[in-house]
Structures are given as structure tokens and as C-alpha cells.
Amino acid sequence: MSDSEIVERTIAFVKETLAGAEGGHDWFHVQRVFKNTLFIAKDEKVDVLTVSLAALLHDIADAKFNNGDEAIGPALAENFLKELRVKKKTITHVVKIIKNMSFKNSLQKKRGRKLRSKELFVVQDADRLDAMGAIGIARAFNYGGFKNREIYNPEIAPNLKMTKEEYKNSTAPTINHFYEKLLLLKDQMNTETGKKLAEHRHWYMMDFLQQFFKEWNPLALPTD
Ligand code: ADP
Ligand code: NI
Asked: Where is the HD domain (predicted)?
């Protein structure tokens, strides 16, 4: 099977598997990450098939929606790629990328699973970009709504020192998520292209927050 046929088959599989997924983690999220991946990959020496498959399969079974089970996604991806008879070396790399994208850093270190590959860096940047900017804002509020969280609550301050467990069980308002995660992404980008795109999306979120607080508290600010 040709590489483009493998990619086409994977797209069909992901679309089918993610039918009915929450709006921030649906096929369109995957499609955007795939597009970001191809865009970033233009400037990097990476294996295009590997980054394409990793982008397409990275959220195939998010632990958040599978009782915290982090093994389901990588296993599903592996089985699917085996059925397509993708080269073993490519499968191994794709599965490692997916694992590294979903495991939180602290856990990775503990279990010694940390992978460093250019292909991982590209897909990771592509995924992080989709959590930023206008789309990042839309996704955050969509996810918050899905979890029935408050938009904002002035009495609940962001917590920058949450453990993974606390983070998972957090019921904090969605605005806090910007300070706990989204505004930190800019400095976590790996590639030059990723950094450039992230910069723009970062400042867009900062503008949004400024406007949000102005509207929340009109009396605190001069009117002109
Ligand atoms: P990804 O699937 O992109 O790797 P996550 O699964 O961590 O990343 O989050 C997916 C989307 O859901 C992101 O846009 C993120 O901002 C949003 N999200 C995750 N946790 C929260 C939260 N506690 N509050 C609001 N949005 C969240
Ligand atoms: Ni994702």
C-alpha cells in the first residue's frame, strides 16, 4: 500500500472512531493538528508518514474519556496500523509518539518512557497550537461547558502547582485553565515554526483575557 493510501485509510478510521466525540477532541481537532503537523514538517527533517500517522491517531482514545486508561489509545493505533501492514519500525515510532503525547511529564520521567524524536516534537507542537489562539479559546470553553464548569469565579484563584491527580479532578472555572496551562504553552514549543505560530496565538489569548476582565468589571477601569 502506498503512503498516501495508508494516510487515506487512517483518516477514514479516525473519522469513524471519533464520531460523536466532544467538540474539542473530535475529528476536526485531529484534522487541524494534521494540517499544523504538515505545515511545521515542511521546515523539519522528519519522516512525513510517521508524523502524519501520529497526528491522525494521537487522540484516538483520550484517557480523559476512557476512565483515565492511557493504554487504550496507543493499543488501538497499533492494531490498526498492523492491519494496514505498515512497516514495523514506523508503527513502533508512531505508538511511542502517541504515548508520549498523552502521558503527563511527571509520569513519563518516573516510568522512563520519555521519547526525544524530531517527529514527536513536530506533532506535539501541532497539538499544542490547537489549544492556543481563537481555537484554543473556543475549545477551552467547550470543554468547560462539557464538564459543567463555571466560566469564571473571582473567588477561585488559579492554582499553578497542581499535581496530575488534582489537575484531572479539578472543577475550577475555565478562565483558570488559561493561567494553569494555555498561557504556558508558548514557552514549551519545540520547533522554530511552532514558536512563531505560538507567539501570535499567545498574544491573541492575552488580548481576549484583558477584554474579558474589562467587561467583567467595568467600574474598575476608566471608561475612555
Ligand atoms: P490535547 O487533546 O489537545 O492534547 P488536552 O486533552 O489536555 O489536550 O485538552 C484538550 C482541550 O481541552 C484543550 O483545548 C484544552 O485547553 C481543553 N481543556 C483541557 N482541560 C481543560 C480544563 N480544565 N478547562 C478548560 N479546558 C480544558
Ligand atoms: Ni489533541
From this structure: 26-132
Q: Which residues line ligand 1 (CB under 6 A)?
A: 24-25, 59, 62, 64, 127, 130-131, 136, 139-140, 143-144, 170, 174, 177, 182
What is the rounded CA–CA span in Å between residue 137 and residue 20? 21
Is 1-123 a CATH 1.10.472.50 domain?
Answer: yes
ipTM (interface pTM):
0.93
pLDDT, tens digit, 9 for 90 and up, residues 101-122: 865 543 445 555 678 899 999 9
CA distance 31 to 41: 15
CATH topology assigned to domain 131-224: Methane Monooxygenase Hydroxylase; Chain G, domain 1 (1.20.58)
How many residues comprise the chain? 224
Predicted model pTM: 0.90
